[in-house]
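Design review, sub-item: ligand-bound model
Attendees: FS, YL, KQ
YL presented the inputs for the magnesium ion complex:
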Amino acid sequence: MNLRYHAFDLELKHTFTIARGSQDVSRVVFIELEHDGITGYGEASPSERFNETPDSVIEYIKRIDIEKISNLFNIERNVAYLESLSSKDYSARAAIDIAMYDWVGKALGVPLYKLWGLSPDDTPKTSFTIGIDSPDVLEKKVREAEEYPFLKIKLDGTNDEEIMKTIRSVTDKVLRVDVNEGWTIREIALEKMLWLQREGVEFIEQPMPAQQLLDTAWLRERASLPVIADENVVSVYDVPKLRGAFDGINIKLMKCGGLNAALKMIYSAKSMKMKIMMGCMVESSVAISAAAQLSPLLDYADLDGNLLIKNDPFEGVTVHEGRLVLPDKPGIGVFKKGG
Ligand SMILES: [Mg+2]
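KQ shared the predicted structure:
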């Protein structure tokens, strides 16, 4: 078995700004897991929030003893081994996990959705994310996102009213709002929630900081807008803690450690009648197509990371009139462009 990796700069079409900062380029690490003439692809998009960098991803990969994952069909055991090396390093573990699943799907000749008993007819529509910007750039971005039926609007607590007003002046589409922990005072957060409710927002993501779980529960009790956890939910172990504070969870492969962890989180949250959303980082078609294989299980999809970049080296899942279209190829369903 051969495990190869290389860092790659994904170039963004537009500077992307959220509550935590701005970026023009996002450096990811691609991996290739080759065994018995089959290559599984994986990708890590390291997160600053978890102190991850492309270098930390590569350091983690170098620690893997490939003998320990030599039976690629034994995903449960392999994932446990990866977690035993580090309970963090989420995106690095996700890269290996994705490559293992891609390899297994290819070895069996089936797309992953089929392996999991899902129908490609059940994929949801994906939202398109509009980062924080000046009014004229916001208007331009909303116009460019014409194809997408849902927009996910980023707010940070500073110019919220102006941003919403600008967006509503150009579109009457369904809006979802992500505050990325930007509201810290619960009384003000409640006023904003009630205002967004009147604006016809569909749900609100992570209105308050993760450590303010009780304030979030207080907020949820007083407003009817569904509240989705993002920064409050990393792994499957976090899901039971959210009861009462959130109506749903936003799962990201780069946050939970991969497809295996995502499946466990989906079924765990469903057992608590919570809504399931899948989100992403800035990622190529490798990680997005992997996540899209699970998308028939979702209530809300926010899988637009590959749509934000201009130099995607891969092709896989596509979007038609806003809906995710799963490729009929084995594994995660991607191929290298021009390859
Ligand atoms: Mg979010």
